[in-house]
Amino acid sequence: MRYERRERGERRGFVRGFPPKPVEMGKEYDVEIQETSRRGEGITRIKGLVTFVPNTKPGDHVRIRITRISRRFAEAEVVGKAEEAAEAAEEAEAAEEEGEAEAA
């Protein structure tokens, strides 16, 4: 039986990589908490990536900021309620429309 020499740093066998993460550090997302972890943190999935959010419970609609990205999961902190962010955006749009109406 003959063995081939491998180059330094070359891997043998099945190489398993992880796809690029669908989230970015510091970026904010509006999510719904789906379940609770063993440690009591809320769990949500962003494009399939499990994200742990402390101080939340299933059914919460929150805006989160990504604080840590690991190989298989991410961790985030609550920035505010998702409804508040949506309401603020609606108010800003309404203010813009009023400004346009006054200018016309």
Task: Please give a quick description of this structure.
The protein has 104 residues and is α+β, with helices and mostly antiparallel strands.
Give the helix/strand layout.
Blueprint (H helix, E strand, L loop, with lengths): L27 E5 L2 E2 L5 E5 L2 E5 L7 E9 L3 E9 H22 L1
Parallel strand pairs: 4-6
Antiparallel strand pairs: 1-5, 2-3, 3-4, 5-6
Question: Can you give keywords for this protein?
Answer:
six-stranded mixed beta sheet; single chain; 104 residues; alpha+beta; elongated; 21% helix; 1 helix
Rg is 22 Å
In this structure, how is the largest beta sheet organized? 6 strands, mixed
End-to-end separation:
87 Å
Strand content range:
25-35%
Mean pLDDT, nearest integer? Answer: 82
DSSP helix fraction? 10-25%
Description:
There is one protein chain. The protein has 104 residues and is α+β, with helices and mostly antiparallel strands. It has a domain of 72 residues: Nucleic acid-binding proteins (OB fold (Dihydrolipoamide Acetyltransferase, E2P), Beta Barrel), CATH 2.40.50. It has one helix and six strands, in the order ββββββα. A six-stranded mixed β-sheet has the order 1-5-6-4-3-2. Strand 5 and strand 6 form a beta hairpin. The relative contact order is 0.16.
